[in-house]
Structures are given as C-alpha cells and as structure tokens.
Amino acid sequence: AAGVIQSPRHLIKEKRETATLKCYPIPRHDTVYWYQQGPGQDPQFLISFYEKMQSDKGSIPDRFSAQQFSDYHSELNMSSLELGDSALYFCASSSLERGVRSYEQYFGPGTRLTVT
Amino acid sequence: AQKVTQAQTEISVVEKEDVTLDCVYETRDTTYYLFWYKQPPSGELVFLIRRNSFDEQNEISGRYSWNFQKSTSSFNFTITASQVVDSAVYFCALSPPNYGQNFVFGPGTRLSVLP
How far is B85 from chain A (nearest CA, A)? Predict the structure, then answer.
C-alpha cells in the first residue's frame, strides 16, 4: 500500500540558509500535518492543512511557512535557519474512513535536517 | 489543555521478560482518541494501535496488549516475551475530537531489550 512520501530524506544546510521540505500524502488523503522532533524529544506539532486550507497551527516559528497544493502535497519552507532547527521533520496524512473522518494519522519516514 | 505523561523515561529488560509501558493522559474532551507509536532507531514512526474514548475493551495483538482505563485516564501497553527487535522509543499520543487538529505526544519511553 502507498505510504506518505517525504523528500528529501536527509538535508544539510548552513545557518541562515533556506530549506524546503516536501510531503506527498497517501492518495486520496486530504489532510496533512507537520511535526518537528528534536533530538531526544517527542514530536511537536507545527501546522496542518485540510483541503488546502490551514486547519490548525502549533509551535511553528514565524521563519517557517507551509502550504498545501491542489494535488494535496504540502511543502514546509524554512528560512534563516538556526542550529536549533536541526531535527527530524515528520509529515502525516489522514482522510475519510468509511465516510467518517479518520483520526488516524499516517506518518511519513521523516526528513532529517541538519543545520551547521 | 491536553497532556500525555509517560513516567518511565527508560526501561531495560532481558529478552523474554514481559514489560509494561505506562501512559496517563489529561483532557477535558469527552470524545478523543489514543494511540501508541513505536520509533525504532531508524527514526520512522510505526503505528501500533488506536483506541477511541468510548471503547474500553482491552486489546491483544500477538505479543502486544493494551489496557485502557478511562477511570484512571490510563492507556498502558504491555509487551509479552519481549524480543531484541522491540528495542525502540514508544510514544503514547492523544488526539482531540476535532478533525484536522494535532496529536499531543507523550515524552516517550525508551525500551532496551537485552539479549
């Protein structure tokens, strides 16, 4: 079965650079979530989109922005990168399940961002 | 506010021992969902189970079992006859009733199963 795809899987950037992470949800999933997991931490919610509109916002820095496109894929844009942005970034998707909104989020493999 | 507590930061057991990972949650919602995820050293989050707040039946899946006690707001996870491959960080998570809202994760429990 198709899973959530994230690219790239690994990314190394320098301080003050920009980065773009991409997420391709499971086909027919209309909701995408972004999480940030720092070393030894639990995943922290950043932002989510439902039908291309932002549906919820967590602890996302102002330097970050995200959007969901017409094909439901999402991109997380990160500018003025800081050392503290080094983390594993997860994308998850969800959708209807037998006509009911599913609260199960299917996670991608993550993008490991290292800022040097 | 919602909160998930996993009091055990790290647990070490010897292979074939049983181990229980504790999860206690706080929420004011009457409808919610609880999850367990496994994060092996490779980093991906592997879904283990989902339980909704109206279903207090315990569940068993192979060597895994879950005990949901709404009265004590706990959703504990037991691995029977643990194996080295069970070594991972295990996260308990709480989802609010509104679709599109985020999961709240617990801090995780690192389980090491020694041969």
Answer: 19
Low-confidence residues in chain A, pLDDT < 70: 1, 96-103
User: What's the pLDDT at A97?
Assistant: 60
* pLDDT value of residue A100: 59
B31 touches chain A (CB under 8 A): no
Mutate which: B9, B98, B102, vs A, most A CBs within 10 A: B102
| Residue in chain A nearest B35 by alpha carbon | A104
Task: Return the residue of A nearest to B109 by Cα.
Answer: A42
What is the pLDDT at residue B60?
83
- CA gap B34, B45 in Å, rounded: 15
Residues 6 or more apart in contact with residue A28 via CB below 8 angstroms: A95
C-alpha gyration radius of chain A: 14
Residue that is written with structure tokens 């283990």 in the block: B48
Query: Are A42 and B105 within 8 A, CB to CB?
Result: yes
Lookup result for tokens 């229980």 = B20
Q: What is the pLDDT of residues A41-70, one digit of tens each?
A: 999 999 999 888 998 888 899 999 999 999
Beta strands in A2-73 (DSSP E): 5-7, 10-13, 19-24, 31-37, 44-50, 53-57, 64-68
Please identify every stretch of chain B with a pLDDT value under 50, giving residue numbers as ranges. none
Candidate from A90, A103, A110 with C-beta closest to B95? A103
Ramachandran class of B42: left when φ > 0, alpha when ψ lies in -120 to 50, beta otherwise: alpha
Burial of A74 (0-12, 13-18, 19+ CB in 10 A): buried
